[in-house]
Amino acid sequence: MERRALILLVLAGAVSVGGCGTPLEQTAVPPTQPSVTDTARIAAADGEPDQWLTHGGTYLEQRFSALDAINEGNVSELGLAWFFDFDTHRGQESTPLMVDGVIYVTSAWSKVFALDAATGRELWRFDPEVPGEAGYDACCDVVNRGVAFYEGKVFVGTIDGRLIALDAANGEPLWSVATTDPSQPYTITGAPRAAKGKVFIGNGGAEYGVRGYVSAYDAATGELDWRFYTVPGDPDGPPDGAASDEALASQAAATWHGRAYLDYGGGGGTAWDAIVYDPELDQLYVGTGNGSPWNHVYRSEGRGDNLFLSSILALDPDTGAYLWHYQETPGETWDYTATQQITLATLDIGGQPTQVILHAPKNGFFYVIERRTGRPLSAEKFVPANWAERIDLNTGRPQETPGARFETEPFLATVGGTGAHNWQPMSFSPLTGLVYIPAQQVPFLYAKDEKFAYRPGEWNLSVSFNDVPLPVAPEAREAIKASLQGRLLAWDPVAQAEAWRVEHEAPWNGGTLATAGNLVFQGLTDHSFRAYRADDGEPLWSYALQNAIITAPIAYAVGGEQFIAVTAGNGGGLPLSLAALDGPKLTPNGRLLAFRLGGAARLPPFAVVARPPVTLAQAGLTPSPAELEAGFALFARHCSACHGTEALSTGVLPDLRTAPALADAALWRAIVLDGVMTAKGMVGFAGKLDATEAELLRGYLAKQAERLVMN
Ligand code: CA
Q1: How many angstroms separate the CA atoms of 578 and 307, rounded?
Q2: Cα 131 to averaged position of ligand 1 atoms, centre (Å)
Q3: Neighbouring-strand partners of residue 224
Q4: Which one-letter DSSP state was computed for residue 187?
Q5: 56 falls in which pLDDT band (50, 70, 90)?
Q6: 592 with 115: CB under 8 angstroms?
Q7: 601-606 contacts: CB < 8 A, separation 24 or more?
Q8: Mean pLDDT value of segment 179-203
């Protein structure tokens, strides 16, 4: 009956055909009733290595699997077991969960899929039907990093700010709450976490201008239990009546100056990824984001630490009460978030077993922080970050490089807002004692935006962004490409030193998984999925895909057989805004892939057909140099963050140089101004652009298209 239903759905065009393993694999029987998964079970998850119960594998979020059937001796026999195709080529950042034989994975636009973990057969799917307009509020693609599983329910946060509880047995929604004000440019891309009968969720939006907070909802009912704002509200207004009131009044308020942060949307500090429950100390850790707007001079008169931006906050999970904080980047001005993965471990430090947080945030320092107190025990650079010399462990503060704040002159930072390490998960192996960081160097020229004017609902960085033309000379372009570096870095957190590294061709590679098989798995932007020996970095296995991997794999076992699974699909902040300097790219739909020893499934041929460029002649336009310059400026401001610097799209969103509408002025206006493609996430810009400006953009893009003809 299920097979018949599947056939009907395929005939109706409602599902892409996934689960293409061998027919023999279709015999596995998925469970009909999800078993009880509560705080106690997740807290003991390391005793059940067959499962992947929570975002980081266990509450400690080490992303270490004790499974060793796949190991350094046989990983060369690893092959594709099955794959499942998603219905979108937008970015795939999900870490799947595997609970009792069922995989729960999300795709772009906050869609949830339940699959048979042995075969990839679809059991159910849930589409929260996020309106396309919400895509405009997402700085960094309409991605989703995964679900939480708790007491028979699956929880997902949606791009438009909802938290939804689904029945794990069938995907039926049980409750849904709006966690954000829909009139504000908030989004949710992070995975919820669940513990102690609560679901914890944050949000994003600091590039636009919002006030960050984290919320706890009752897992059974969806009722709000508590909320903690990460930055102060209006000092002249009443308190929020939230768990954060006391800490904001006594510690944070005095570290903010002027009212600009209120006028510019709320100061930022959004908690958009790491929210981790510590079952050993009964504390909740939250990583907070960058300031809004970026530039400290505009945000806070260039004064004050601006608590609790770019910090790790420890809260009481029951009440949200403040326990401690550690601010990694005081007076943040570089988009240096501290939202990156928070990993909990017990390390031998100075002969003492010490409960610590391992943290590799954007700013390039690797921090070992005492969990009980929030005191930094050590902090060293894991990439060459030039904004600060060192961290003074007595004060916990960085010793900044003169000029790094670009108050009078631009500053070329070796680590920009893309981060030395972004959301891509890292892993920690208790066997090797090493942390495996998807590290990168993406330099950024910080310059004050002298013309900054706050525009509600739009990007409000107050820092120059994509508004200086790229050099045309080939050698200059080669230099830009060479400056973009990515590497797999094995880091010894006790010695605070590199153990080994593998250089990659590009940044923005996938997160990592460490296993007891002495293996580290990582997918790359070069369309390969790889395994390395965990203790020395020796490359052991590589599998060619048709798409980039940007997220981290998981390990699980069904019926005694170990699998490694990972989602593939390029996207996220950097690929949207980057210039594809080596020619146009095509991105196929994302998919989830599962591997096992001897797996023999094959991927179908890749069949995305390139569209031809639309030239000035076809567009019927002859723009003057001044009009082209005006078109470039409009593109930089309104379009480049999603369609690529100078329209050199990396292929996640359409390459506008090949948009058929370029040849049709009326259709172009209907899309660009009237928003006829809003359902797909391309909102209308009427009110932001007029018909003359839309035409300037059309001319600029058709001119850019001529580069493709020359290629
Ligand atoms: Ca940011």
Answers
A1: 31
A2: 23
A3: 217
A4: B
A5: very high
A6: yes
A7: 601/20, 601/21, 601/22, 601/79, 601/80, 601/81, 601/82, 601/83, 602/80, 603/80, 603/83, 603/545, 603/546, 604/20, 606/546
A8: 98
Q: How far is CA 615 from CA 654, 658, 702, in A?
A: 16, 9, 5
Mean pLDDT, to the nearest integer, of 431-448?
A: 97
What's the N-to-C CA distance of the chain in angstroms?
Answer: 53
183 alpha carbon to ligand 1 midpoint, in Å? 20
Q: What is the whole-number distance in angstroms between the Cα of residue 207 and the centre of ligand 1?
A: 6
Measure 459 CA to ligand 1 centroid, in angstroms.
Answer: 11
**Pairing state of beta strands 64-65 and 512-515?**
parallel
Per-residue pLDDT reduced to its tens digit, 335-372? 999 999 999 999 999 999 999 999 999 999 999 999 99
Q: Which of 578, 567, 589 is nearest to 523 (CA)?
A: 567
d(CA 176, CA 379) in angstroms, rounded, equals 41
Token pair of 628, please? 């082209």
Using an 8 Å Cβ cutoff, are 211 and 269 in contact? yes
Nearest to 309 by CA among 163, 411, 210, 234: 210
**List 116, 141, 335, 655, catalytic entry:** 335
DSSP output for 565-594 = EEEE---SHHHHHS--TTS----PPPEEEE
CA 442, 585, 466 angle in degrees (round to 5)? 40
The CA 134 to ligand 1 mean position distance, Å, reads: 17
Q: Taking each helix axis from N to C terminus, what angle separates 665-672 and 691-710, rounded to the nearest 10 degrees?
A: 110
8 Å CB contact between 361 and 308: no
In the residue annotation, 674 being an active-site residue is answered as: no
Ligand 1 centroid to residue 608 C-alpha, Å: 32
Give Cα 33 distance to the centre of its chain.
32
Beta strands in 505-619 (DSSP E): 512-515, 519-523, 528-533, 539-544, 554-558, 561-568, 591-597
Q: Which segments within 248-328 are labelled E, that is strand?
A: 275-278, 283-287, 311-315, 322-327
Asked if pLDDT for residue 15 goes beyond 80, the answer is: no
Which position has the higher pLDDT, 593 or 648?
A: 593
